[in-house]
Amino acid sequence: MWFGMEQEYVFMKDGSVLGWVSDHYPRPQGPYYYSVGNDNIVGREIVEDHYTLCLEAGIRISGVNAEVMLGQWEYQVGPCEELTAGDELWMARYIMERICEKYGVSVCLHPKPVPGNWNGSGCHTNFSTRTMRDRGNKAYVDGVITRLRENHDDHMRVYGVDNDQRMTGEHETSSITRFTSGAGDRGASIRIPTDFVRNGYVSGYLEDRRPASNMDPYLVTAKIAETIIPVDQRR
């Protein structure tokens, strides 16, 4: 199996989100996503230092982006094979903490760092089997999704602490109590990339959007593997 993880996080300073004034919220979320400019971005120098040092350390960091809330960012690690996904995400987290010491800020991995009309933070986990990458079909993918649906509650038990505060069915999440899937659906439990659908499910991956930002990648990748490998064994 291959895994790729999208680690969302929030920079904090003096008890507030970096870039927020303590007595009022910034403009509503929206203009900060993938943005540029001093009115929309804080912490880019930290993000770029982290990216560079991860590359130098041999971590397969594959991208960074500003997220929908001011002070919220994401980096992507992977694709990685099996257990190495957990190794590399933990080291990327460690490097980020060390860099933030230099800048006098901290990293918040709580899945709902700010209550109200603001997105939470997740660690979306993309995954594929060799079958999915090389010789998949719709029946196979449907079987994988069925297994994930049948084991939804077991997954949610290991997908992060306080994840119920994030997974409300709003702010690009599904409800923690309801499993959903859909092509290109950012509000589903499992998002099926549209390119995967267009090529007839022959070659692609799936995105599990349920894991929280504070999840343990070893537990999450193990649970996904445990759930879907029986589908491969039936082939």
List the keywords.
globular; alpha+beta; Creatine Kinase, Chain A, domain 2; 8 helices; 235 residues; 20% strand
Helix proportion of residues, in percent? 25-40%
What do we call the CATH topology? Answer: Creatine Kinase, Chain A, domain 2
Uncertain spans = none
Anisotropy-based shape = globular
Radius of gyration: 18 Å
Q: What distance separates the N and C termini?
A: 16 Å
Quick one: biggest sheet? 9 strands, mixed
Structural class by helix and strand composition: alpha+beta
Number of helices: 8
Quaternary organization: single chain
Architecture per CATH nomenclature, i.e. the level-2 architecture: 2-Layer Sandwich
State the total count of DSSP E strands: 9
Query: Beta-strand percentage?
Result: 15-25%
CATH superfamily: Glutamine synthetase/guanido kinase, catalytic domain
Mean pLDDT rating: 94
Helix/strand order, N-terminal first: EEHEEHEEHHHHEEHEH
Number of domains: 1
Give the CATH class: Alpha Beta
Explain what you see.
This protein has 235 residues and is α+β, with helices and mostly antiparallel strands. The chain has one domain: 2-Layer Sandwich (Creatine Kinase, Chain A, domain 2). The protein has helices at residues 44-56, 84-103, 130-134, 138-150, 152-157, 163-166, 194-198, 217-233, and strands at residues 2-13, 16-17, 61-66, 72-81, 106-108, 123-128, 181-183, 190-192, 206-208. Strands 1, 2, 3, 4, 5, 6, 7, 8 and 9 form a 9-stranded mixed sheet that branches. A hairpin with a 5-residue loop joins β3 (61-66) and β4. The model has no long low-confidence stretch (mean pLDDT 94).
